[in-house]
Amino acid sequence: MENPEVIKEKFDQELKALSQREGLSVLKAHYIGKKGFIAEAIKALQSLPKEERPLRGRILNELKEYIERRLIEKEKELIEIEYLRKLTSEKIDITIPGRLQRFGTEHPLTKTLKEIINIFSSMGFSVEEGPEVELDFYNFEALNIPRDHPARDMQDTFYITDDILLRTHTSPVQIRVMEKRKPPLRMIAPGKVYRCDADVTHSPVFHQVEGLMVGEDISMANLKAVLEAFLRELFGPDTPVRFRPSYFPFTEPSAEVDIGCLLCGQRGCRVCKNSGWLEILGAGMVHPEVFKAVGYDIERYTGFAFGLGVERIAMLRYRIDDIRLFYENNLMFLGQF
Ligand code: PHE
Fold first, then answer.
1. Which CATH superfamily is domain 108-334 in?
2. What atom in ligand 1 is closest to the CA of residue 170?
3. Tell me: the pLDDT tens digits for 25-63?
4. 74 alpha carbon – ligand 1 mean position (Å)
């Protein structure tokens, strides 16, 4: 191993075979380390004749420099290779389509109901609830609809027993709240109601929001102001609103409230039956008989009440022409909101 030619050849082979950077230091120690081949060969110069030593010494020095240079070059090469290997193994293909995240959406009825509640809350109305399985007393009697009253035919009631029924409107919640609280009060009562009726615009279960405001000087003007403000907030500031005389046993006077048809801009269409108007809610001044039923002083207090159908409002807002779509849970339909 003292021959420079042999050392170089062996080094070149071993360097070529090297594929791991860790091997470099081993190689370095073997060849140019303190006890490496070059050091051994330099030591062995002693045994050569004097005149041969300088030449041989220079050759060995050059070989040492060569080995040092090659080791540095090889290290660079190996770093480069390692880097490329890393790049390909950790490659992220940003053109691959992402995994679809399915997000639920709010049901259009929930959205509509939330909007309605928000508007009335901002006007200081509290939100109240009552039972869906209701006593005849709260659903009818206390609302000035006695047993033989023809108005009972207006609502196709699901009876459970003679006295227990599925509430046909949210008006019984008025009674329950007034029984417990003294005026002044401002409340709404959102919830499910039930009627034996089913077609494209009627569902046996649907949602209403009841409203009630009672105090010492509540007038029809307050009713108009509150409902107009509500409808313009919900349907837009330029929405035409009109009040038409109507009849409910629990209000007197009573009114039905219409808005200008949203679909035809009041030119007349199928939805508004060419009238240009859409009926949107029922309302009126609370009937003294109702106040008597809950023990309010009818000389002192007046109030107004109203009731609106959430499905009807949602159908108009989102231009939905079949009420059954709300209950079929079709994701293609629900995903649009
Ligand atoms: N309860 C009535 C209905 O369901 C609506 C209404 C409520 C009307 C309050 C006047 C006052 O048709």
1. Bira Bifunctional Protein; Domain 2 (3.30.930.10)
2. 1
3. 999 999 999 999 999 998 988 888 999 899 999 999 999
4. 90
pLDDT at 327 over 90: yes
Q: What span, in angstroms and rounded, lies between the C-alpha atoms of 250 and 142? A: 9
Please report how many Cα atoms fall inside a 13 Å half-sphere around the Cα of residue 169, on the Cβ side: 25
Q: Which residues lie closer than 8 Å to 262 by C-beta, 6 or more apart?
A: 235, 239, 278, 316, 317
Q: In whole angstroms, how far apart are CA 245 and each of 56, 249, 253?
A: 124, 13, 8
What span, in angstroms and rounded, lies between the C-alpha atoms of 256 and 239? 16
Pairwise CA distance, residues 336 & 321, whole Å:
15
pLDDT tens track for 257-276:
999 998 888 999 888 899 99
Instruction: List the domain boundaries for the chain.
Output: 4-89, 108-334
- pLDDT tens digits, 166-196: 999 999 999 999 999 999 999 999 999 999 9
pLDDT tens track for 235-252: 999 999 999 999 999 999
Nearest protein CA to atom 4 of ligand 1, as residue: 169
Burial readout 31-54 (b: 16 or more C-beta within 10 A, e: otherwise): bbeeebbbeebbeeeeeeeeeeee
